[in-house]
Amino acid sequence: VGAEMINTDIVTLTRFLTEEQVKHKEATGDFTLLCHALQFSFKSIAYYIRRASLINLTGLAGSSNTTGDDQKKLDIIGNDLFISAMKSSGRVRVLVSEEEEEAIVFEDQPKARYAVVCDPIDGSSNLDAGVSVGTIFGIFKLPEGAKGTKEDLLKPGTELVASGFTMYGASAQLVITMKGGTVNGFTMDNALGEFILTHPDMKIPRKRAIYSVNEGNTMWWEEPVKAWIHSMKNPEEGGKPYSARYIGSMVADAYRTLLYGGIFAYPADKKSPKGKLRILYECAPMAMIFENAGGQAVNSKMDRMLEVVPEHIHDRSGIFMGSYDEVQKVIDIHKKHA
Ligand code: AHG
Ligand code: MN
Ligand code: MN
Ligand code: MN
């Protein structure tokens, strides 16, 4: 390789965050420090996932969480790594995790102004097969004088200051967006130990004939959902049917959808009238990414996902997210059936 082929001006996540901070004159650096702690949690979770089969970290922990999931050993380790990183950042007042029944309030950080929500390991049923999983996060800024109780977190996604996820796949991919900003993707370079900006200003294709849904749930679906899936598999004369892609790790299905276009759905149905995915740490952070990338995200009532306010920290919702036109089709079919 000629020297001129080597990129000597690498944008790491650290550099990206520093440059973002400089753009915001009012910034204190707290948010940047919080992101550095987040970055470390992703690196350490990735490390243990990759070693799981070698150091006996596969399988169940023997416990279940508040939302009824059987916890895997790595669900618990991922949770502990994440909490420890957030606590030690000194910038987090309160934290909600899928694996913790109650919000964790860091009482020794009374001045910390951020609240963080997380799904430490998304797609944990895929772990033992070595299939991609991820970590999802959302960050809220607490108002002056906030006590840092869980009520501070029962906010719509429109209040998130940042959100994102890391997918632990062939490489670790980190996607982050800030309020009103663009979506940026980073790839972990294991040799450098840094996340490198590889996907600046990500935009989701306007449409694409790919759907991602657990079709095994068909018998419980409402009519509009059945009609929508039917229309994709049975196009009008001369049309081509959609392709189906379902990994069963929302982060991985969402990441592919973000890059290639299409739609990911986990509708509310007759068996789970409130849906499966959780609003605060699964639906809202993802909805923010899809909107900032030019797509849409709605719940099963066809309301904008980011405006949904959870009543409890572990509340669930149906969700449809993806390319703008693909989500619009779902909305239009629901309107026809209303
Ligand atoms: P988690 O592993 O964090 O509990 O999330 C599981 C979610 C999500 O990752 C995935 O999209 C979905 O559950 C898969 O559910 P089904 O097995 O019902 O398709
Ligand atoms: Mn779970
Ligand atoms: Mn999840
Ligand atoms: Mn999880």
TrEMBL record:
The prosthetic group or cofactor this protein requires is: Mg(2+)
Kindly state a single biological-process term from the GO annotations of this entry.
fructose 1,6-bisphosphate metabolic process
An example Gene Ontology cellular component term from the record? cytosol
Which molecular function terms from Gene Ontology are attached?
Answer: fructose 1,6-bisphosphate 1-phosphatase activity; metal ion binding
Q: Which InterPro entries did the record assign?
A: FBPase_C_dom, FBPase_class-1, FBPase_N, FBPtase, Fructose_bisphosphatase_AS
E.C. number, please?
3.1.3.11
**Chain ranges of the Fructose-1-6-bisphosphatase class I N-terminal domain:** 12-200
Q: Which UniProt keywords apply?
A: Carbohydrate metabolism, Hydrolase, Magnesium, Metal-binding
As recorded in UniProt, coiled-coil segments are none
Q: Which reaction does it catalyse?
A: beta-D-fructose 1,6-bisphosphate + H2O = beta-D-fructose 6-phosphate + phosphate
Q: In which pathway does it act?
A: Carbohydrate biosynthesis
Q: What class of enzyme is it?
A: hydrolase
Which PROSITE patterns does the record associate with it?
FBPASE (PS00124)
Location of the Fructose-1-6-bisphosphatase class 1 C-terminal domain: 204-334
Report the sequence similarity comment from the record: Belongs to the FBPase class 1 family.
Q: How does it assemble?
A: Homotetramer.
Protein name, UniProt field: Fructose-1,6-bisphosphatase
